[in-house]
Structures are given as structure tokens and as C-alpha cells.
């Protein structure tokens, strides 16, 4: 038994470096309401990881745990997604998911309340045009992670990418102080995108209020009309339950970013490649 535990530790951490020889059978997660957490719970069942614990927390707590482990070359398994600044800062890899529990690549969609086009046609048109690339989002996330205020980071990105932003604003007439509320979850990716859209709306004369909530209340807020829009709908997997629950009470404007991914993530120095290896 002791030999087996040692072999498992060496598999995860690798040899030839001053790393911990003990592995906590924990997967460091984020907020409990996230679809990523539900998918991870399903993965624990599907891969029969009965001895593993999924630790609930937040995106900030997860990245703090990752940073500490990475700096000490210790083993760690986290719930991860891209785009995210951690992939720019650290050498990380996704564990292979042969059972496809986490699904294929996802999109991030723009979701608005049903009457937004009638009430705020200019804001609707901008939100419908909003589209950017993962590298754009990551550049804003890195600036925020390095200490810049999210709005300042967004303003700088907008200033440095006028050609892209102008496409969102083409033929739109400015308004005079109309109010728009954008809902978002406190994920680094959504903080970046929501602030960028807010800055673009402000260029058109809108007064923009940002409402940070959990994923469920975010979707409920759009469905009830308490919030006007969000650019944070991870589909078709992460927010699938909310999409189905509130179907017919919102308008889906489609993807504003393609090619996202979710799954279990580890530092590249760990000699493990698949979720299946966690049972060895």
C-alpha cells in the first residue's frame, strides 16, 4: 500500500526535483454554482474518483492555490478554463478527457433581456456587433491581474484597438445618458469582457452600471429584466442548465468569442496526462 502511494506521488510530481512526495486527493474548484463545478462532479462519478474531494471556493481562491503550488513545484489539480490569464503566466496543461465529460470547445454568448432592442436600440446594436478573440480577452485579463483597475485596463485596450471597436460602433448614433445595466460573474474573463463592453457603451453616451452576481442570479436577472444584458453566457455546457431554465425569457445574440475550453488543469511539471490517471 505504501509502495503504491509512493508510485502515485511520483507519477503526479515527477522525479529529480525538490517536490512534495504527498498528494492531497483534492480538486481545487471555484464557486459552487458554476457549471464547471457540476461538470467536475460528473467527472468524479464517471471516472470513479470516489476518493477525490472537489473543494468549493472562488476563482480568486483557486488561482491563489495554483500560484502557491506552482511557486513551490507542488502537485495541484484545479478546475480550469480558457481564455484565462493563468495560461499566459504559468506553464499548464489540460488533463485528457476521453469520456468527453467536459464536452468540446465552448463559446461565450451575449444574452440580453427580451425588450432591449425596442427600449435601447443603439445598445442592442453594439452588443449584437461585439466580438473579439481569446488573445484580446487574455491581454485585458493579464493587465488586471498585474494590478490595473479593470476599467482602466479596459479603457487602454479600447484605445489600443480602435479598429476593432469602431466595427462595433459603425453607424451608431450616440445617446444622451441612457442607463444600461450589465450583469457578470466574478471570473477574470467576464470581468475583462464586461468592462470592455461598458467602455464601448460609454463612448456612445450610456451610463453603465455593472452588477456582479453569481451565475444563477445573472441569468435570472436578464430573464426578469432587472439587468439589461450580459456578455458572459458560456455555452453549450457550462451554463446549459440556466439556458434551459430561462429559455424564452431572454434573447441570445450569439457568440462574442469562440474557442473556449473547460476541464481539469495541472502544471506541466506534473507527469500525468489524463483524468483516468487519477485512479492509478
Automatic annotation (TrEMBL):
- Say if the entry is tagged with keyword Transmembrane helix: no
Q: Which CDD domains match?
A: PBP2_OpuAC_like (cd13639)
Subcellular location per UniProt equals:
Cell membrane
Which GO annotations describe the biological process of this protein?
A: choline transport; glycine betaine transport
A single Gene Ontology CC term: ATP-binding cassette (ABC) transporter complex
Q: Which UniProt keywords are listed?
A: Cell membrane, Membrane, Transport
Q: Which residues form the ABC-type glycine betaine transport system substrate-binding domain?
A: 22-160, 179-280
What are the recorded GO MF terms, alphabetically? amine transmembrane transporter activity; carnitine transmembrane transporter activity
InterPro entries named among the record's database cross-references:
ABC_Gly_betaine_transp_sub-bd
User: What Pfam families does the annotation carry?
Assistant: OpuAC
Say which domain of life the source belongs to. Bacteria
The answer to whether the entry has keyword Protease is: no
Protein name, per record: Glycine betaine/proline transport system substrate-binding protein
* Species of provenance: Desulforamulus aeronauticus DSM 10349
Higher taxonomy: Bacteria, Bacillati, Bacillota, Clostridia, Eubacteriales
